[in-house]
User: Fold this.
Amino acid sequence: MSRRPAALSPDPRPDVLLVGGGLANGLIALALAARRPDLTVRILEAGDRLGGNHTWSFHDTDLDTDGDALVAPLVVHRWASQAVRFPGLNRALSSGYATVSAERFDQVMTHRLGPAITCGARAVSVTPTSVTLADGRTLEAGTVIDGRGPTAMPHLTLGWQSFLGEEIRLARPHGLTAPVIMDATVPQRGGYRFVYLLPFGPDRLLVEDTAYADDPDPTGLAHAESLAAYCRLHGLQGDVIRREDGILPITLDGDVEALWRAAAGVPQSGLRAGLFHPTTGYSLPEAVRLALLVAALPDFSAPAVFEAIRHHARKRFAEGRLFRALNRMLFRAARPEERVGVMERFYRLPQPLIERFYAGRPTLVDTARLLTGKPPVPVGRALVAITAPFARGHRA
Assistant:
């Protein structure tokens, strides 16, 4: 459901002005409303509703108690388990899984923060304390947080995860009782490919064709062909309710200091801040962490907010060193047809390790387990890929 653009709030100078009504800024707004009701918060969104056309999912073990409480009103489906399928492995995991829809996100945000939301407001210029709109108006604020989605990231070396999904009302029940996070039994062409399945009801299913590739498929044509072939093969025929597509960055290497210098003092959020899981692209857990951090700040001046978010993002980048090494093994050491073997090996590991990996909290023992043993690609190529940043004289 779309919403016509709302009028701009008469408040001439809110404490916090959130540019972009996506997941990260929406969660910041919800956290501030709950924990800092003394602050005036406004959201500017270029589209006609918040959240766009997305589905965000997470594992139960990704969030702590406070994080789960923040997200709970947005969740449309929860499952007690999940599964993966590979050419040599079918495995069920007892980890819980949950999904947030853009429709529910927009509904909850509108109910709780309606007067603070302005849709149809496209920002063309942003400073730490002001936003200039496409119609020429300039709005002032105590601090501006820019969450308009990913921008050019020349300071990061990236691979890409692209996807095309269809939510289908099926002609007959699909028989799934839990999500299939990865069905990698599909043909492996040009990268690591898998299909993602979310059962929203006995005859309602999100089927998403996904590829980890060196270059994305911006037109989605290859995805459309693969998706149609998968649905025919598995008898998943019916009426398409909704389509979604996207291209997510996967970080292989980079200079986080240069990334934040380019921000020019403007606080950033979400993908724009580099806050996403480096390997999976999952953004919700990182968005939750950032929202709770921002809501706990004692000082909401623009320099203080910028420094707090920059420090947090730099810390998360440092903690992502293991993930970037594994990404380089996937993208640089493994040939496209070999990449499925890297992921299959990962899913043979103990479930607690897999849960900590998705949560972005691997232990030293996890790190050793992931980087030792016989790799599923030639050892020489694996070592070159893992150590490449150090050979160039900078941190990984």
About this structure: Confidence is low (pLDDT under 50) at residues 390-394. The chain has three domains: 16-79+97-152+255-319, 156-252, 321-391.
